[in-house]
Structure formats: C-alpha cells, structure tokens
Amino acid sequence: MRMAIAGAGLGGLTLARILHRNGIDAVVYEREASRAARSQGGSLDLHPESGQLALAEAGLTGRFRSAARPEGEELRILDPAGRTLLHHRPQPGSFSGRPEIDRSALRDLLLDALPHGTVVWGHRLVAVAPGPDGGFRLEFADGHRADCDLLVGADGARSTVRSLLTDAEPDYVATLAELNISDVDRRYPDLAELVGPGNLWCLGVSRLLAAQRSGDGSLRIAASLPADDHHIGNKRALLDMFHGWEPRLTALIEAGDGRVWPRRIEALPTGTRWAGRPGVTLIGDAAHLMPPVGEGANQAMLDAAELARELAADPADPHAAIRAYERGMFARIGPIAEMSARVHAMMLSPTAAEDIVRFFTAPR
C-alpha cells in the first residue's frame, strides 16, 4: 500500500511517526524547501488528553519533557488599565497540566524521530486526480507527479486535498497583527516581568493584546481585532487601535522588532463533515480549522494518533479504518469547535474581560 501524507505540520508528522512505529510506511510531501525554510511561530500548550497523548503513542514523551516548559502554562489576564483580573500559576515542574513547547522544537522533535527521506521537501501539492491504476495521482507545483493508494490531507487551512471530500471553505473571523521582541530579559526587563514566564492577555472592548514567552528568550506579541479591522500594516496604526490603554501595555507594541505582520484568521464552519470517499481523509486544520484558542495543534495530533491506531488495527482494510476514524473524529470535534468559536467570540466582544474571566473561573 502506497500511502501519502500531504503536509509536514504537527499533524502530518505525528501520523507518520506513529505509523512508522506500527510498521506502516508513508511519504510526507511538504511545500517548504526545508525544515529551516521559515519560522514556525511561537509556542503552544500541549494538553494531556490530546497532544501529550499523541506524543505518548509516538514514543516521544521523554523527549517532549526535555524540551517543554511547564512554567510557560502561567497565564495573566489584565484589563486596558493594567489591572490584574486573573493570574493562573501552574504547579512548578509539573507536566500534569498543559506545559508549553516552542512549535519549532516540537516539529524538530517529530522530524528527528522519522527515518531519513520520509519527508520530501519542496513539493507543494496543487492538484489531486484519480490515479491510472486506482488510488490518486498527486501533482506538484514544480511539475513532479506521484501516485498513492491512500492519501491523508494534513495540508492546513487552504487544503488541496479537502476539495476531494467537501466544498466547505474557511470564513474570515478576525485579523491578527504580530510582532516579536528578541532578547527581552536584557533589552526590556520591565516587559519581561510584566509578561512573566508564560502568557499575558490584555482584554479590552473588541480588542485583545497578547504576549507570549518563547523558549529562546523572545516575546511574541499579537493583537487580535475583529475581521473588519484590517488597516494595521505598521506600528502607528496598531498603536492607534489601542489608544488610551495603559502605557505599560502599549509598550509591548512599541518595543517590537521590525515590521508588523498582519494576517487573516479563518475558520471552517462549525460542524463541517463529509460523506466519505475510499482512500482519502483529512486531519488537523484541513479537516476542522478553528480559531486559535489552544485546540488546533492538539486536535491535529490527536487526529493523527486516532487515524494511525485505526490503520494499524486493520491494515488489510484501510477504507474501514478511515471510516472508523472519521466517525470518532466528527463526534469529538463538534463540541470542541463550538467551544473554540464561542471563546474566540468572547475574546473580541465588547465585554471580553468579564466574559473570559467568568469562563475560566466557572465550575467545571
């Protein structure tokens, strides 16, 4: 069985690793030219029931704990006047919660655990068609072609593979503007102290200013705005969006290195699913793109673990394995996608501070 995975993100690499541990080979086609072709973004918190569970099935718990930062789970929520509304402190050194790990470190951990040649770099998938002998023929931007019997789309928000299964398209739900502050402890010790070892959220009226500590000693600054607020191509425009906020907070924007990086935040409609097609399925953002509130990478990795588990349990009938995976994934993702959309809407609402604090402090 020739198996192809489109996309070497966290979901695709987790799938390849767990399949390899179960004696199933797969080729991962990735659009980036190499593992170092671009920045992988900030850090993420891995949840015990999803991301950490997937790493356990991949046999990588020890390596993860060596690279993760339990202290990065700390969360401080402030209002625009700089008043502390909530301060969550994790148990020191504990991995029972949701420790942070840099995306680049996690991706490297997964890449290093795969046999050489598993990932084929510089292959941007542009089209998929039925193969001449069954299965699928993959076409790449450079003109290269490859055939496979089984195809998994782990190719993100603008998935090419998704079109084989559904015509669902992502909706524009917010605008995000990002900056980076390097060597923050030395250059801006006051800002380092303000943010702490983890995450800082400053919630205003339909505005969120966030800062996140990375393992390399930098801060990643992100301003989230409603979808129609997109004129934020420079610091001056961004500072105008937060006019009147406590100067200690807007100093996070002023201290940013270089340019502002604006981007659209998109999400698939909640409840997106498909009838199924033999030989092909989706994981991660390709299947259930959600607003960035902490579930995307975790659910992508859990998708990978569950799909690998079904394929390993019934290698003689991969189509039945895919159907079983999709049934479970749809049932699991439904409430998570709804929760993610609700939390994201709260974070950009006129009453964001009250709504988010109530969400975090309500009995579970």
TrEMBL record:
<keyword id="KW-0560">Oxidoreductase</keyword>
<keyword id="KW-0503">Monooxygenase</keyword>
<feature type="binding site">
    <location>
        <position position="103"/>
    </location>
    <ligand>
        <name>FAD</name>
    </ligand>
</feature>
<feature type="binding site">
    <location>
        <position position="38"/>
    </location>
    <ligand>
        <name>NADPH</name>
    </ligand>
</feature>
<comment type="subunit">
    <text>Monomer.</text>
</comment>
<keyword id="KW-0521">NADP</keyword>
<dbReference type="InterPro" id="IPR036188">
    <property type="entry name" value="FAD/NAD-bd_sf"/>
</dbReference>
<keyword id="KW-0963">Cytoplasm</keyword>
<feature type="domain" description="FAD-binding">
    <location>
        <begin position="279"/>
        <end position="313"/>
    </location>
</feature>
<comment type="function">
    <text>An FAD-requiring monooxygenase active on some tetracycline antibiotic derivatives, which leads to their inactivation. Hydroxylates carbon 11a of tetracycline and some analogs.</text>
</comment>
<feature type="binding site">
    <location>
        <position position="285"/>
    </location>
    <ligand>
        <name>FAD</name>
    </ligand>
</feature>
<keyword id="KW-0547">Nucleotide-binding</keyword>
<dbReference type="InterPro" id="IPR043683">
    <property type="entry name" value="TetX_monooxygenase"/>
</dbReference>
<keyword id="KW-0274">FAD</keyword>
<comment type="similarity">
    <text>Belongs to the aromatic-ring hydroxylase family. TetX subfamily.</text>
</comment>
<protein>
    <recommendedName>
        <fullName>Flavin-dependent monooxygenase</fullName>
        <ecNumber>1.14.13.-</ecNumber>
    </recommendedName>
</protein>
<feature type="domain" description="FAD-binding">
    <location>
        <begin position="4"/>
        <end position="192"/>
    </location>
</feature>
<dbReference type="Pfam" id="PF01494">
    <property type="entry name" value="FAD_binding_3"/>
</dbReference>
<feature type="binding site">
    <location>
        <position position="45"/>
    </location>
    <ligand>
        <name>FAD</name>
    </ligand>
</feature>
<keyword id="KW-0285">Flavoprotein</keyword>
<dbReference type="InterPro" id="IPR002938">
    <property type="entry name" value="FAD-bd"/>
</dbReference>
